């Protein structure tokens, strides 16, 4: 029986090649898009779930308030918090503390290796997290000062060893940066999984910090520079524990008496750290959770639209198959047998589409991987990604439900025809069936219009961020990393000044400056800043940027009042520096009525007074997601940091070679590395740009699939009205009037879809735009343009069939009468 069903299904699909092809194309496109999107979603949702006891691990987050205003919403907090919480609350099973070591230079013999991320971690780290050691003892590897654990990639890169030789590295020594006291290798770590929000290449024992940073790294309640993770005991309610933290704050901080701020603590689940982090000083790899879920919604829309196409086209062919049903019923076929027959066609077509989609997904996978730079594969959907093997079962269940959903209604509608009315020729299409098909078309185009509006808004916002004036000029700016392996001494400032001066002697280099901080990066904070002589004794929080006297000129940042830095404002001994510059936002925050009023005034921070010598215009230090920061600028120097060079774009290779030669002449032994400022700054928009590209591609695909369905449906509907068109032409109807007649009903459906889609699109895009401090307006014309585009697509889809029918010779259409 099943064999017979399949044989007839194949014959019917082959007989109706156009409709089968349209259905197959739509299903293949929908399933392929879903398989690609689901790989991405599964990868993003799987972050940190490989960790043992991941559901019990939380990180401590910290909000700081001054004068009732939130001044820090961050993942960093005080060194003592994790240990003290573990001692105070029996609900906590374990804790670990880490500090950010940032980028380092590893020195081995005469070679220097760059490592982009080092963490200082306590002795609990390797037992707390699931980062297995391939060599060394995890219980003792990070106990002693200057203990160093390398990932296996770094072990191979530095020593050239094979995995079987990792144990021979234990006890060997390496040098880090300018530190001439060796670090002893105590462990080789398995490379960190790509789905860990903590990404690093080396670990150094936390005890090392005591000797380099001081005792405060263990006992300070005032310096906020550490990250803490807690593991709760099984069955503990994290929210109930979190409700005890206000008492913790009052006990140790006594309001704002200890740290100068009111401290509030919260627990963030480890599994949410990657996708739901809107925190400052983020130490991990993060993404936008809303964007990931949006992609999943788009995938669902695409697949629904494809399955709706099948329903529409299958039920639209009801008249054509009515006689088949009538004959089968007269021959004794039951309704159950007929439904099985029609469901078998749905299953066959969907399985064929799934097979083709799997092949296309594998073929297109490298393109997607190159686009988003993430290790995607179909294995993420069969056990390696989010949910493990359960994900494969869920997807299989969704596919089965989709096949049943798309096949059941056509099967039920076709198998319920009355054989007497069919065979007498009195059968007519059900008004209820027509209403269902119209509703499904409206749903398809509602989803399409929402996606079109979303695409417009995303690209307009991205274009706005790219084109909006930042308040400084980053074009044609070459940035060279500072000489981290050069010792600082009393001659360092003169060496840096001479280096810049010789560079600017070249006509291709127009300006040069040095800074410790980089535009586009998160700036450090300065707390408890006060205006000397003001009545208000409450301290303020400002961002801090360390620059030289040429920085504002190099980046063309305007001076509003006072003067720029002079060479005499800097000193190798930082304790002798007393002059600072602030921006307009900082001047306003400090209570000065206009920028000029701040010049010559004194402010205090870091335990001493400083003279304000100038005020510069506000500029966007970070992307337009963030508001403009109040910043104070100090004229310190460092061998680290960056050199910014304003260069001519002609003969770039020669300019780079000249800079490299000078750099090696002044800072021998340091690696020469560089990048361009515009590329670096625009990396802040990388995730948004990627989101825009992906949503655009798949939104266009959704519109294409919906149009395929409308094309097939209009084609069949117009075919059913062929004789009517012939009669109208004989009676004198023009081609234009016939096209308008045939298109009118479909355009009504699209107009209804536009009306439904507009408020949905407005709500969704407004929620997305709310994430940006500076954003475009939701203008009415965007929605009007999206609606017009949807109408145009529908007209093009329907008009082809309508015009062909209207131009047909009426003799042919009426010949059978």
TrEMBL record:
It comes from the Bacteria. The keyword Ion transport does not apply. Keywords: Cell membrane, Membrane, Transmembrane, Transmembrane helix. It is found in: Cell membrane. Residues 297-417, 697-810 form the ABC3 transporter permease C-terminal domain. It is a multi-pass membrane protein. GO terms for molecular function: transmembrane transporter activity. Pfam families: FtsX (PF02687), MacB_PCD (PF12704). Signal peptide: none annotated. The chain crosses the membrane at residues 21-41, 291-313, 347-372, 392-414, 435-459, 697-718, 730-758, 778-798. One of its GO terms (cellular component) is plasma membrane. Residues 20-244, 449-635 form the MacB-like periplasmic core domain. This is Putative ABC transport system permease protein.
């Amino acid at each position: 029986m099943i064999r017979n069903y399949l044989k007839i299904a194949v014959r019917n699909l082959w007989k109706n090649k156009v409709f089968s092809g349209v259905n197959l194309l739509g299903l293949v496109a929908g399933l392929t898009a879903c398989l690609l999107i689901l790989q991405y979603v599964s990868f993003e949702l799987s972050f940190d779930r490989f960790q043992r006891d991941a559901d019990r691990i939380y990180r401590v987050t910290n909000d700081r308030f001054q004068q009732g205003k939130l001044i820090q919403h961050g993942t960093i907090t005080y060194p003592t918090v994790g240990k003290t919480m573990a001692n105070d609350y029996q609900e906590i099973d374990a804790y670990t503390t880490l500090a950010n070591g940032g980028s380092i230079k590893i020195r081995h013999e005469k070679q220097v290796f760059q490592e982009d991320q080092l963490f200082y971690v306590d002795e609990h780290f390797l037992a707390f997290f699931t980062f297995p050691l391939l060599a060394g003892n995890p219980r003792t590897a990070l106990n002693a000062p200057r203990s160093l654990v390398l990932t296996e990639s770094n072990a191979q890169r530095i020593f050239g060893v094979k995995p079987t030789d990792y144990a021979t590295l234990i006890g060997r020594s390496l040098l880090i940066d300018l530190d001439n006291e060796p670090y002893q290798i105590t462990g080789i770590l398995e490379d960190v999984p790509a789905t860990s929000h903590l990404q690093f290449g080396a670990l150094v024992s936390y005890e090392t910090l005591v000797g380099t940073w001081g005792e405060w790294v263990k006992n300070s309640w005032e310096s906020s520079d550490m990250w803490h993770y807690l593991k709760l005991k099984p069955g503990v309610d994290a929210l109930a524990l979190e409700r005890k933290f206000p008492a913790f704050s009052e006990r140790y901080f006594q309001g704002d008496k200890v740290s100068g701020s009111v401290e509030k603590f919260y627990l963030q689940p480890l599994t949410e750290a990657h996708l739901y982090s809107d925190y400052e000083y983020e130490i991990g790899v993060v993404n936008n959770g809303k964007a990931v879920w949006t992609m999943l919604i788009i995938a669902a829309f695409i697949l629904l639209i494809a399955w709706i196409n099948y329903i529409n086209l299958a039920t639209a062919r009801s008249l054509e198959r009515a006689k088949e049903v009538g004959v089968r019923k007269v021959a004794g076929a039951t309704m159950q047998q007929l439904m099985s027959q029609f469901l078998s066609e749905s299953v066959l077509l969907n399985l064929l589409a799934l097979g083709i989609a799997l092949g296309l997904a594998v073929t297109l996978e490298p393109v997607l991987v190159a686009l988003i730079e993430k290790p995607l594969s179909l294995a993420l959907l069969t056990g390696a990604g989010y949910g493990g093997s359960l994900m494969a079962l869920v997807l299989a269940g969704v596919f089965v439900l989709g096949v049943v959903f798309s096949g059941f209604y056509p099967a039920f509608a076709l198998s319920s025809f009355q054989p007497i009315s069919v065979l007498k020729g009195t059968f007519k299409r059900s008004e209820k069936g027509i209403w269902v098909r119209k509703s499904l078309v409206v749903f398809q185009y509602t989803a399409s219009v929402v996606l079109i509006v979303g695409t417009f808004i995303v690209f307009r916002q991205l274009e706005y961020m790219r084109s909006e004036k930042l308040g400084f000029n980053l074009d044609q700016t070459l940035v060279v990393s500072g000489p981290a392996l050069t010792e600082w001494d009393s001659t360092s400032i003169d060496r840096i000044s001479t280096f810049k001066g010789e560079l600017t002697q070249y006509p291709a280099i127009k300006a040069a400056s040095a800074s410790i901080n980089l535009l586009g990066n998160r700036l450090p904070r300065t707390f408890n800043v006060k205006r000397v002589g003001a009545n208000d004794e409450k301290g303020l929080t400002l961002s801090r940027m360390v620059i030289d006297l040429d920085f504002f000129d190099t980046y063309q940042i305007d001076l509003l009042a006072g003067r720029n830095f002079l060479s005499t404002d800097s000193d190798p001994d930082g304790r002798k520096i007393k002059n600072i510059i602030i921006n307009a936002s900082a001047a306003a925050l400090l209570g000065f009525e206009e920028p000029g009023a701040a010049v010559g005034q004194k402010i205090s921070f870091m335990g001493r007074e400083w003279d304000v010598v100038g005020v510069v215009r506000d500029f966007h230090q970070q992307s337009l997601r963030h508001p403009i920061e109040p910043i104070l600028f100090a004229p310190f120097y460092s061998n680290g940091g960056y050199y910014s060079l304003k260069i001519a774009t002609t003969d770039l290779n020669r300019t780079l070679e000249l800079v490299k030669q000078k750099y090696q002449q002044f800072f021998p032994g340091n690696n020469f590395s560089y990048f361009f400022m515009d590329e670096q700054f625009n990396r802040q928009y990388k995730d948004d740009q990627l989101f825009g590209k992906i949503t655009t591609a798949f939104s266009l695909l959704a519109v294409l699939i919906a149009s395929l369905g409308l094309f097939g449906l209009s084609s069949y509907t117009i075919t059913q009205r062929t004789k009517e068109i012939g009669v109208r032409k004989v009676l004198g109807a023009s081609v234009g009037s016939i096209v308008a007649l045939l298109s009118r009903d479909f355009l009504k459906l699209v107009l209804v879809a536009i009306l439904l889609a507009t408020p949905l699109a407005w709500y969704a895009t407004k929620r997305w735009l709310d994430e940006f401090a500076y954003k475009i307006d939701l203008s009415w014309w965007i929605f009007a343009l999206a609606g017009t585009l949807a109408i145009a697509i529908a007209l093009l889809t329907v008009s082809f069939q309508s015009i062909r029918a209207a131009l047909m010779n009426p003799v042919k259409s009426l010949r059978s009468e």
